[in-house]
Amino acid sequence: VLHSGSGNKNAFKALIAAEYCGVKVELPKNFEMGVSNKTPEFIKMNPLGKVPVLETPDGAVFESNAIARYVARSKGDNLLWGGSLIEYARVEQWMDFAATEVDPNIARWLYPRLGYRAFNAQDEEFGIAGLKRALEALNTHLASNTFLVGHSVTLADIVMTCNLYHGFARILTKTFTSEFPHVERYFWTMVNQPNFKKVIGEFKQAEVVPPVQKKAAPAKQKEAKKEAPKAAPKPAVVEAPEEEAPKPKPKNPLDLLPPSKMVLDDWKRLYSNTKSNFHDVAVKGFWEMYDPEGYSLWFCDYKYQEENTVSYVTLNKVGGFLQRMDLCRKYAFGKMLVIGSEAPFKVKGLWLFRGQDIPEFVMKEVYDMELYEWTKVDLSDEAQKKRVEAMIEDLEPFEGQALLDAKCFK
Ligand SMILES: N[C@@H](CCC(=O)N[C@@H](CS)C(=O)NCC(=O)O)C(=O)O
Questions:
Q1: In the sheet that 59-62 helps form, which strands lie side by side, from edge to edge?
Q2: Domains of the chain, residue spans
Q3: Which regions are flagged for Low complexity bias (predicted)?
Q4: Which pLDDT belongs to residue 244?
Q5: Ligand 1, closest atom to CA 67?
Q6: How far is the CA of 53 from the centre of ligand 1 (A)?
Q7: Distance from the CA of 84 to the center of ligand 1, in angstroms?
Q8: What's residue 214's pLDDT?
C-alpha cells in the first residue's frame, strides 16, 4: 500500500515503476493529506510524517526514490535498474541528479509562488539559475540519447520525469523550456509512454508563471483528490492555496479626483501608433497632453541592482512586475528599462500615475513597489525633463549604457 494522495508526483514514481514491472501497488481509499500522515501509526512508518510511504509485507519504506527502487527490484526480471554494473551506477547517478539538482531548484522557484514558502527574490534567482544549469547539462546529454541510460526506460527516466513533472505542470512555461529542446522532447516522450499515462493521465504544460503570493499559505497542505487511482488521472499536483473570501469593491478614490484634461487612453494610443519620427510626434504630443494637476510622473530605481546578475531573471522580474501592475492599467502608464549589456543589469523606470501620489492601492497590492526607490519628477528641472523623454523613447545610450530591453506598460 502506497500511503499518499493520488496526485503526488513523488508517489507517481512507484506507481509508474509498478506499471512497468507488473507489481500491484494500491493507494489507500481515504487518505487525507495533513491528517492521515500525522497519525501515530503513520509516524511509526515515517518519523517525518511525509508522504509517500510504502507499506510492504516486510515493513514500511519512506523516501520516494527508495520506494521506487523497492518496487523495481521486487520483480527481478526487468531492466528498470539497468543491465550492467555501469548502468546500475548511471541509473543511480541520474536519480540523484533529479533529486538534488532538479527537484529542489524547481521547489525554490515554485513553492513561494504557490504560497507554501515566503517569497524572496534572491532565493528565486538562485533557484532559476540552478535549474537552468541542471537543465543545460540534461539537454546536452539528451541531445544524443533518447533515454537517460541505455536504450529503454529505466528508473532514472521515471524519477527524472516525475521530478520535472511538477515544474512543467505549474511553472516551466514553453518560453522557459524552449531553451532546452532535448529536455522538452524527452519529457513529452516520457509522459506519453502508456505506462506513464496510466498513472498521470493527459499532461498539460503550464501556460503562465504563477504570480507571487503575498502571504505564505497555512502550513497544512492538501493534495488533489480523485475517486480512483487509475480513472483518467488529472495533472493536478499541488492545490492552489485557499483563496480569501472576496470583499465588496469600494469605488477607486482615483475616480473621485477632479476631471483631468489628459485622456490617458489618447496618450497610450499616440505612443503605440507612432511608428516614425517618434520624438517630434509622440514625445512632443506627450507634453501637449500632460496635465500636471491631474497626473504625476515618477522615476523608479531598483534598490538591489547588484542582484541583477542573470539577464533572463532580470527580464522576468520586470515582466512579473508589469503583470502585477495590471490592476492600475486605467490609471497608469509606465516604461521600464533594463540597462547594460552585461551583468549586473540596472532596472530603472518612469511611471505616470493619476493624481499627485503613487496610488495607495498599488503600494498595497503590488509587492514589487517596495523593491524600488521612487522619486517624483520635478519638471522645473530641465535635466529631469530630458530624462523623462529619454525613457519614453528608449533613447540609447541611456546614462552611458546600452539597453538590454525596454518594456512598456500601457
Ligand atoms: N524526499 C521525500 C520528500 C517527501 C515530501 O516532501 N513529501 C511532502 C509531499 S510531496 C509531504 O509529505 N509534506 C508534508 C509535510 O512536510 O509534513 C520523498 O521524495 O519522498
A1: 2-3, 53-56, 59-62
A2: 2-200, 253-409
A3: 230-239
A4: 37
A5: 20
A6: 10
A7: 32
A8: 65
62 Cα: distance to centroid of ligand 1 (angstroms):
10
Rg (CA), the chain: 26
**pLDDT in the model for residue 75:** 86
Burial grade of 34 (CB within 10 A; 0-12, 13-18, 19 or more): middle
Rounded to whole angstroms, the Cα distance separating 158 from 196 reads 8
Using CA positions, which residue lies closest to atom 14 of ligand 1? Answer: 50
pLDDT at res. 215: 57
Cell of 326: 495590471
Query: Cα–Cα distance between 334 and 410 in angstroms, integer?
Result: 7
Cα-to-centroid distance, 51 and ligand 1 (Å): 5
Q: How far apart are CA 31 and CA 66, in angstroms?
A: 21
Ligand 1: lining residues by beta carbon, under 6 Å = 8, 10, 37, 49-52, 63-64, 221
Residue 325 near residue 286, CB atoms below 8 Å: no
The SS3 assignment for 154 reads coil
- Residue nearest ligand 1's atom 13 by CA: 50
pLDDT, one tens digit per residue, over 201-214 is 999 999 999 998 76
Q: Are 200 and 161 in contact (CB under 8 A)?
A: no
CATH of domain 253-409: 3.30.70.1010
| DSSP-derived 3-state class of residue 3 | strand
**Which residues of the chain fall below pLDDT 70?**
214-250
- Which residue, judged by its Cα, is nearest atom 2 of ligand 1? 63
Q: pLDDT tens digits for 268-326?
A: 999 999 999 999 999 999 999 999 999 999 999 999 999 899 888 899 889 889 988 98
- Residues facing residue 2 across a β-bridge: 54
The closest residue, in CA terms, to atom 15 on ligand 1 is 50
Fold of 2-200: Glutathione S-transferase Yfyf (Class Pi); Chain A, domain 2 (1.20.1050)
